[in-house]
Sequence to fold (611 residues):
Amino acid sequence: MCGIIGVTGDTAALETIFDGLRRLEYRGYDSAGVALVDGGAIWRERAADGTHSVEDLAVAVAAAPRSATGIGHTRWATHGAPSVQNAHPHVDCTGRVALVHNGIIENHAELAAPLLARGHVLSSETDTEVLAHLLEEELARGAGLAEAMRSTLGQLRGAFSVVALTSEDPTLIVAARRAVPLLAALGEARGFVASDVSALLGRADRYFALDDDQVVEVRPGSLRVTTLAGDEVDPTVVGVDPSWDVVAAQKGGFDDFMSKEIHEQPRAIADTLLDRRANDGSIVLDELHLSPDELRAVDKVVVVACGSSFHAGMVAKYAIERWARLPTEVEIASELRYREPVLHERTLVVGVSQSGETLDTLEALREARRSGARTLVVSNVVHSTMAREADGIVYTRAGPEVSVASTKCHVAQIVALEVLALALAQWRGTMGPSALASTLDELHRLPAAVGEALGRAKEVEDVVDVLVGARDYFFLGRNLGYPVALEGALKLKEISYLRAEGYPAGELKHGPLALVEPGTVVVAVLDPLRDKMRSNVAEAAARGATVVVLTTDDDTDPPGDHVLRVPAVRDPVLAPVVEVVPLQLLAYGLARRLGNDVDRPRNLAKTVTVE
Ligand code: M6R
Fold:
């Protein structure tokens, strides 16, 4: 997936594009490029230097012409290596059209063959470039850019958002989307499109969402949206979450976004819990849009998600089963899509997604809706595609998360899912008012407990000192400690590039123990099955592993070579929110020692809008 931006009517178009690209880099940064309309021609520059592509590009455009219309792109490579040749914008044979694209054109090879036969020259290995040549043919037939876009999109299979401009019509940008996010926006006498709102903060004042297969023509101060058939439709106006301001999207004195976001966790949890309790003590979920009766009719919950959001979903299973007594399955979104899950109108499918745009989760939810299930989304992004499509929403209120490694959104997701579990328990009558009230009180104590865990960063740093140099990690946990172990391993592997496996500790002796030897590091999450975990720690220690245990302040005799402690939380279902903190700090500390870019790890991107 990639970040795209288009600007028209902006005397500082290049500056706006770069500002946007810097804020979109979380979507990919293998390469970057920009195209401007310059008189009767298109001027283009591209750079491909891994994590520094946008900054290299900023140097390379020093001689750019002044222009009020342009497009920019920051890429996460799918088709074709990350190189200048494959970087966007791509142009047609005549140099009259330039476009940027996010997503995958699945039938690009099919489309390329006749184009080549008709004499077009394709100069990249991307799935994108065919679009420029298809637009070229439509323009040659006399179509305007919007009309050309409509007939070209009709030929495409796949998921995409695309923005194009032409030297023939210098104030126009044309954009379209299918299953991939794209917003249009207007400011005074200016028009914009971008992959997400963060790219336009401080510049646009009205935002519009596009539905699948809609085409938007943006001119300075105005826009027009049409369907593929050419029928004009009213654009959907979207509000912007006021907490998503420019300051929230900056590092604010921290070395990187990841450490800023780790330290924002107490606030993210507190904000996610705001206004969830009515005066009579009952739980309210304002944005839910599903009535208590509809939720009482549910007889099974299926949570679908990817990555860290999946780990939050694993914790939710314990909460929903324990408190609401509802059978709950948790499934990796990309797996649910391609089997034949038993879902029906009494199933509640809960999609968990920070971005609300992850394609695997989005499509799993669509599949669920086709099966007649009710869908609910836990998302951090207001008006994200999932939030717009789902029957119900519970927002996490973590503010923008920029670092690829999810931290504050992960803990906010757990908290939001736990509030949902309590609401289900309330409506199903499986928990009485006093049990509900005391669990909610306990949830409200989490920001302080997380703050205390953050205050122990020095203890984690001491362990980092000892572990630097180790290459193989096992993260072990049981029961509610297992998702914590998985999340610790995921954090470590994604930013440190070290081999880190999360494992249910009881499974160690069924195979993986063969890999444990002197030099292996075992990180053991002791709670909630502390005694059982002690045996598993002993098994690893006996094979020479270096053992780091994660336990609570009330543990008087923890095993292991090194001990990380967190404040104890009364209800074990809430503990993962606190326990994950030292593991985030451990991953962060090790990655920094290794000299890695923690915000932009290699090969990854923040929002994954490809399958
Ligand atoms: O936006 P989402 O929550 O749907 O994203 C899901 C995963 O891509 C995400 O959690 C990923 O695993 C993170 N990089 C983990 O830190």
Observations:
- The mean pLDDT is 93.
- The chain has three domains: 3-240, 251-454, 457-593.
